[in-house]
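Record 1 of the preview.
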Amino acid sequence: MPLIEAHHLSKSYGALRAVRDVSFSVDRGEVVGFLGPNGAGKSTTMKMLTGHLRADAGSAHIAGFDVADEAVRAKQHLGYSPEGAPAYGEMTVREFLRFAADLRGLADPAESVRRTLALCRLEEVAAQGIDTLSKGYRMRVGFAQAVLHDPEVLILDEPTDGLDPNQKHEVRGLIKRLGENKVVIFSTHILEEVEAACSRVIIIDRGRIVASGTPAELKARSPEGKLDEVFRAITLPDTVKHEVRT
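->
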């Protein structure tokens, strides 16, 4: 059974159709890059997958549980880091993670916090207030709360946004390692992240899935083997389609 299943998901905001009939599944051991231009529907799809936004049509399942009708069971298997990494700024990093651990009812919250601080390289700022942290560290705190309970499924919205090059390298490596025995989906518009960390790529544009495959399979659609050429040809078909083999 796939750990993530999306069936014909659709969502509109008034007259704007943000997501249109999106379906896919992800198995354990996959790291999937959700790639698309700004406004393509990536974040809206992720919010529906996590149950934070109700779909107008279709359904989503995490570890076999419907995210709308079995929300608590689904979220026990899910770690989610939304864009912007929201947190309680007046808390220290350690306090926030302990708060999250207590909310989840973890058997040993202190040990879960200790392990997560080490995993996410946050020990040196554990006693600092979240409001005092740089954007990069705040992003790491958001990532930390997502992995705190060691979930089977991780959904990460722009997890490297605001990080410096060294931090980006660390996070990509961590995502790749976690994906060895979990499912990880992360959204990005940075092509190099896809090639560095992903076993599969899903490209979404104007609310629809327009391509899916391994990075190598997608690159093979370009005469020069370049993923950026394929991306441009798919998402801007009127201007660059002639550059890429169909």
